[in-house]
Amino acid sequence: MSFSKTLTDWYSVNKRQLPWRQTTNPYYIWLSEIILQQTQIKQGLPYYEDFVTTFPTVFDLAHANEAEVLKLWQGLGYYSRARNLHFAAKYVVNERDGVFPKTYKDLLKLKGVGDYTASAIASICYNEVSAVVDGNVYRLLSRYFGIYTPINSSKGAKEFKALAQELIDKKDPATFNQAVMEFGAVQCKPKSPDCSVCPFITSCYAFGKDVISDLPVKIKAAKVTKKYFNFLVFLTPSQTTFLEQRQGKGIWQNLYQFPLIESKSALTQAQLQLELDNLEVLKDHTYEVSLYNKDEIVHKLSHQHLYTRFWIVDVDTNIKGGIPVTEVEDFPVPILIGNFIEAFNF
Description:
By secondary structure, the chain is of the alpha+beta class.
């Protein structure tokens, strides 16, 4: 039996029932693929359901303001996905009258859509023979065929794409692509897969050579950097506080946060006091400062770890530009800030 047939037979019995598998609407498929980038289905599913409920069509998403989209996305991380999602929706509506591109090549023109997402949409919605290659596919193919080329190298990307394209079922690319992704997620898991129930057990290179934990090969990422964040939570007698919108490029672009003092190491209260004395917003104000969390909150991102403290700054009078504390939850914020807001309970 061929690799493709074995895979799709397994899928017909073991596939999970998921809402985006009940449709070929490109808007819903696109939404699901963007949400599930670097996100597990268990976490992404409620976000998908919220998005299709709040924005049932690409027109609804395009006509929303960015703050609404970012707020709905809050907690998923990698916020550039949300900004690209909104940008692409506006492109589809304004430049294409709401009609999604129908080929792999044209789908790549959508902001935030790369090889994997374009292949998924093209195959599932339009039956185009374009193989998907994501982390699940890398893992399955590297183990089954014994491929040691690093998956995060340009050579690896080309090699695995070519192999997947060779293996794909030309008559039913949609089912094959969904099957190969599902197999990696459910059966050929990153750690301790149950090979005893795998249909490929007799022909799998990694199982036969006992090198399952060695594959796939990945070039080690650059050293993670440390940053020290000190967020200032202003409180006034009239129950207002202060939020600022992050500008420029970055993972939290256009999200809101409490005023931030970034330092090279953890600050003592005396050191923070010196920083506060130089803040224009506190000029002509009397205030008291206290540390909210004695132990730093370590927020881990892919390339950096943020060692975070929240400082409560009680100010004697109102601050220009302040907002009622009752409105804080209406703003799109990073999950780090969101967790604090929930715990602090203004």
